[in-house]
Amino acid sequence: MEGSPSYEVSWTRDGQLLVTAINSGVTLLNPGSGAKTPMFSQYSFPDFAHACSDGHVIFTATPGTKIQAHIWRADADGGNAKELTSGKFDYEAACSPEAKAVLYSDADNKLERVALDGGASQPISEFAVFSRVAVSPDGKPAAFVTSRPGDSKEKLVLQPLDSSQPPRLVEFERPRAEYALGIDGAPIEFSRDGTGIVYPVRSGDTDNLWLQHLDGSPGKQLTDFKSEFIRDFDYSFDGKQLAVIRGHRESDVVLIRDSEK
């Protein structure tokens, strides 16, 4: 997309793209025609928009004059929005595969769950969330990146959504790349069959997507880009298409002299 840098993308059920960009909020993009429709412009600072399997869209917005961020649910066209959370800073929401629940990170970086129809939120994990939240296709575990005090290596948390099961911590097979922009976390996704985790890895000034199998078997590189960093990516609901936001950083060094000396 032209204009402000885009940093989040999500496929909708009908094959369109929800794209979030700096300064311009959320846009619904038809990749076939190129048509663009602004979404949620009636809300302050709409962000983190993602589609659910039943056609609903979840997003973050500021409620009224409060300096907070809450999770909202809306119809596919952006109408009938309903506020789902009331925390200080709720963000990075992800729908469960059956579109019954929404998982998100709160102001303390803790994983919470709320019903898509609304209600009280429930804490899910004791581990801090430092990435997007992904939910497996079978709806059983959620996955996110964590970092523990005293541990120099970040870990992948596989958090069963059935509270009777303990979480599993997994070492990353390759160092995970981040292209920090704003406050959103780094992207991770389950593979379409749920047997692996996909995340960006970096070589020099180039990012590619890496598939890490959760059974410990050797992973593999999925893309073959020759330049640019990966900001975000998302698989279509049928698994046949991949949307990737890529970019690079530009910077200049400026020398300022005091002419009076």
Describe the structure.
It is built from no helices and 22 strands. The protein starts with 5 loop residues before the first strand and ends in a 14-residue tail after the last strand. With 261 residues, it is an all-beta fold. Helix content is 0%, strand content 44%. The strands form 6 sheets. The chain has a 4-stranded antiparallel beta sheet, with no helix packed on it. The chain has a 4-stranded antiparallel beta sheet with strand order 5-6-7-8, with no helix packed on it. A 4-stranded antiparallel beta sheet has the order 9-10-11-12, with no helix packed on it. It has a single domain (6-247), classed as TolB, C-terminal domain (Neuraminidase, 6 Propeller), CATH 2.120.10. The protein is globular, with a radius of gyration of 19 Å.
